[in-house]
UniProtKB/TrEMBL annotation:
<dbReference type="GO" id="GO:0016887">
    <property type="term" value="F:ATP hydrolysis activity"/>
</dbReference>
<dbReference type="InterPro" id="IPR010230">
    <property type="entry name" value="FeS-cluster_ATPase_SufC"/>
</dbReference>
<dbReference type="InterPro" id="IPR003593">
    <property type="entry name" value="AAA+_ATPase"/>
</dbReference>
<dbReference type="Pfam" id="PF00005">
    <property type="entry name" value="ABC_tran"/>
</dbReference>
<dbReference type="InterPro" id="IPR027417">
    <property type="entry name" value="P-loop_NTPase"/>
</dbReference>
<dbReference type="InterPro" id="IPR017871">
    <property type="entry name" value="ABC_transporter-like_CS"/>
</dbReference>
<protein>
    <submittedName>
        <fullName>ABC transporter ATP-binding protein</fullName>
    </submittedName>
</protein>
<keyword id="KW-0067">ATP-binding</keyword>
<dbReference type="GO" id="GO:0005524">
    <property type="term" value="F:ATP binding"/>
</dbReference>
<feature type="domain" description="ABC transporter">
    <location>
        <begin position="2"/>
        <end position="246"/>
    </location>
</feature>
<keyword id="KW-0547">Nucleotide-binding</keyword>
<dbReference type="InterPro" id="IPR003439">
    <property type="entry name" value="ABC_transporter-like_ATP-bd"/>
</dbReference>
<comment type="similarity">
    <text>Belongs to the ABC transporter superfamily. Ycf16 family.</text>
</comment>
Length: 249
């Protein structure tokens, strides 16, 4: 599904990604861990095609297409979804309008008609229940005044409506209490299927008790320096990242 080869990227003339390799097959969940400033969020932003990131080398294949050659909207329409560490607030635009516009854009790119308002409202209400978000959140401004946990639930709601092929979750656990964490994990687990893949960026092994990954990778100084199964996350929690740097050196 996703094949990243020797990816290099700069932000403000500073090299952040420095020869990163990663292969994600359909249905797999990959966790990416690593110290602060390693380039985890940068990886997500580069894959999503966000402005301000300059790719200086490498290749990214997404379902047989050159991802780096696609506009950000095109990437989203082809099934890539990035859940940000800090979701944006869009006051004045209702959550419902925003979600429907996103869903209709994706449907249009697949040659499907826009949903009727009635059908969409029904679907959105159902999905609200699934992520434990009261329905009046559909009427509020996008993320406006939402708590950390509510923003994450809202993001999950968006993900459920868009049905992406590859979801990238960047520190979805930061600022969540245990109950909210469980809701997010349940939502992600409900979305797991043999065709859909996830890249879960997290600082804490705790989230991986709920979202059990197939692979765990350590990102350090812009590249993946170690990969393993979920037991690697437990080792990291116990011993930190220092020993891997030493091992690699
Ligand atoms: P992580 O998510 O692993 O904590 P980031 O990808 O956010 O790391 O950041 C990697 C490095 O890139 C950091 O040193 C950070 O300061 C730098 N960086 C990220 N975004 C910018 C930016 N917009 N301008 C300048 N430096 C940036
Ligand atoms: Mg960080
Ligand atoms: Mg980050």
């Amino acid at each position: 599904m996703l094949n990243i080869k020797n990816l290099q990227a700069k932000v403000e003339e500073k090299t952040i990604l420095n020869g990163l390799n990663l292969e994600v097959k359909p249905g797999e969940v990959h966790a990416i861990m690593g110290p602060n400033g390693a380039g985890k969020s940068t990886l997500g932003h580069v894959l999503a095609g966000r402005d301000g990131y300059e790719v200086t080398g490498g290749e990214v294949d997404f379902e047989g297409r050159d991802l780096l050659d696609m506009e950000a909207e095109e990437r989203a329409q082809s099934g890539l979804f990035l859940a940000f560490q800090y979701p944006v607030e869009i006051p004045g635009v209702s959550n419902m309008e925003f979600l429907k516009a996103s869903v209709d854009a994706i449907r249009a790119s697949r040659g499907q008609d826009a949903m009727t308002s009635m059908d969409f409202i029904k679907l959105a209400r159902e999905r609200c229940k699934a992520v434990d978000l009261p329905q009046d959140f559909l009427k509020r401004g996008v993320n406006e005044g939402f708590s950390g946990g509510e923003k994450k639930r809202n993001e999950l709601l968006q993900m459920m409506l868009l049905e992406p092929k590859l979801c990238i979750l960047d520190e979805t656990d930061s600022g969540l209490d245990i109950d909210a964490l469980q809701v997010v994990a349940d939502g992600v687990n409900a979305l797991r299927n043999p065709e859909r893949s996830f890249i879960v960026v997290t600082h804490y092994q705790r989230l991986l008790d709920y979202i059990v990954p197939d692979y765990v990778h350590v990102l350090s100084k812009g590249r993946i320096i170690k990969s393993g199964g979920r037991e690697l996350a437990l080792e990291l929690e116990k011993h930190g990242y220092g020993w891997i740097d030493e091992e690699v050196a």
